[in-house]
Amino acid sequence: MRFRYENKYIVTEEVAAILKARIEQTMKPDENGGSYVIHNMYLDDKYDSAYHGRVLGRNVRDKYRIRHYNNDLSFIRLERKHKEGVYVWKDTVPISEEQYKMIRAGDMDFILKEEAPLFKTLAMLHRLKGGMRPTCLYSYKRDAYVYKPGNVRFTFDRPPFQTDDGLPPLPIQQQPHIMNFGKPDYWPILLEVKYNRFLPEIMRRMLHGLPLFYTSISKYGMARERGVLPYDEC
């Protein structure tokens, strides 16, 4: 298990533009092309353990989600995100479009027969915690840059919006989701800085002098709290 650091900051469009101008001299777009839409379908148990773990501020917690990109259902993966303070570790396994549609429809029983370790972990929770089920869908645009030393990633996530993947709709957040800086029509950006054991000095200098507002925002928590109904109330 290899943990990574994950630091989150709220930035304005102006600050994001300045930072991008700096990092584009050194960093490269990530392996997915650097700019894309992420679709996360979050899973939780009968007791909403993942959501309440976030609300209660538990230092150690797990989050399960299913992710695909740009409405492309040819590559879908199930992810477990394990977090201990600022340390993050992820486990992933690919799933088929058919499995994705089954889970989206609330049919999770097939996971009991799967052999991949992550499926086995999810199956255990499915048995012990009253059944896992999808809770909400959260879609947003990401610009991502990488720097090989330290395995550094800078990502800029913009507000969520509804997209069409040809499947029945899930509830999508309708309101600004982070902070509006006193302007109801203003949507800021979430900057995430991720790295392994160290953040290279050249990367630190990229951030120097910019007004970065450190935050512990959870996209899943925001999705559940700001205008997204539980999946079974749709």
Report on the structure:
22% of the residues lie in helices and 37% in strands. It is an alpha+beta fold. It has an 8-stranded antiparallel β-barrel, surrounded by 4 helices. Strand 5 and strand 6 form a beta hairpin. It is globular and about 50 Å long.
Show the helix and strand layout.
Elements (H helix, E strand, L loop, with lengths): L3 E8 L1 H11 L4 E2 L5 E10 L4 H7 L4 E10 L2 E13 L2 E9 L1 H8 L12 H12 L4 E15 L4 E9 L28 E7 L5 H7 L5 E3 L3 H7 L9
Antiparallel strand pairs: 1-6, 1-9, 1-10, 2-7, 3-4, 3-7, 4-5, 5-6, 7-8, 8-9
Quick recap:
22% of the residues lie in helices and 37% in strands.
- Helix count equals 6
Order of adjacent strands in the largest pleated sheet: 1-6-5-4-3-7-8-9
Q: Topology as H/E string? A: EHEEHEEEHHEEEHEH
Total count of strands: 10
* Net shape: globular
Low-confidence region ranges: 162-186, 227-234
Structural class: alpha+beta
Biggest β-sheet description: 8 strands, antiparallel, barrel
Mean pLDDT: 82
Name the helicity range: 10-25%
Radius of gyration: 18 Å
Give the amount of beta strand, in percent.
35-45%
Note the gap between the termini: 37 Å
